[in-house]
Amino acid sequence: MGKKHPAIEGAIREFIERQKVFFVATAPLDGQGHVNLSPKGLDTLRILGPQTVAYLDLTGSGIETVAHIKENGRIVLMFCAFEGPPNVLRLRGRGRAIEPGEAEFAGLCAQFPEYPGVRAIVAVDVTDISDSCGYVVPLFRYEGERNQYRAWTNKLGDGGVETYQKKNNSQSIDGLPGLSVE
To answer: Which residue of 29, 38, 131, 162 has the fewest CB atoms within a 10 Å radius of its CB?
Structure first.
């Protein structure tokens, strides 16, 4: 059933690149803290090498993923086949949040389409690649991207997004440091 893979290459890479949504899970070190699981979409993921991926972290209501990886680095990305043969693929590793203004941000950001409200790039050094059957994952048909994110950030404008980030993304729900907003 489940199988380990040495690298993000061949069929593994092709599977990841076909997915329209993936999920990111992190947790704080404190056992009383909140585990976080977030869906990610749009064209925000890039495979940077056989053991490295990165995704754009767009402005949202919370900052749990960034806060958790700043604290301990642990992260898992999960991809599910909602079309075609069943499959669930997990990339486990150590993440880093690279914020605008940091040296490597501009170079990494250039590899993605332009989106408003990018608050960080999460880069992951993958230490474990494994898949499992996915037999119970239902089949869904992809209908398209939602337009609400772009409409919301366009309505806020750059200054409004920055104000929103300062208010909502400076710390996690458990009080861990989030974005380095001033």
So the answer is: 29
